[in-house]
Amino acid sequence: MIESRQITLHCTTCRNHKVFNLNMDQVRKVAEGRGLQMQCAYCMVARIWQTSEPVVIEEIDPSISTRAKTILLVDDDDLILRLLQKVLESWDAEIETASNGKDALSKLASRQFDLMICDLQMPEMSGQVLFTHVQDNAFLPAERIPFLTGDKRPEVKEFLDKSGCYFLYKPIQFLEFASQVQAVLANEVKEK
Known about the structure:
9 strands; single chain; alpha/beta; Rossmann fold; four-stranded antiparallel sheet; 2 domains
């Protein structure tokens, strides 16, 4: 299971405070008193961030079963798929990839995913058409489908706004990407 916690950190250079969604590896580092290198909006570069408050890691109750999250990455660019996979590989998650919308739809029909990270412009089936099929078949709720796109045309922005999905523009800032994915997964709908 990909666990994350919201922790307030401050930039050690400018003292700016910000709440981050940190994965448990990052939480452990902060709990040990080590800083994390993150982008600072005020300093305009990556800086070391630390916490002012002690961070305590609670023990996980062994009677509570956890399962690894399943993430489907959909992009026709193999380099993007490999980079995204690299960013997510440190998390305890099962990651599958699809190079187009048709391949993704087939994978969504054969198993359940917790999250689908999807490009908008792909051959054979665009992200918009894939999204329509996903919603029609109730494979995933819209809030579990972050989109990636380099297309800033008004009609694309209108689709993204209407979809209810999170989205990031390419080129991807990987710290922002990781934070967004963690936020989406942390905001889980409770399973019955």
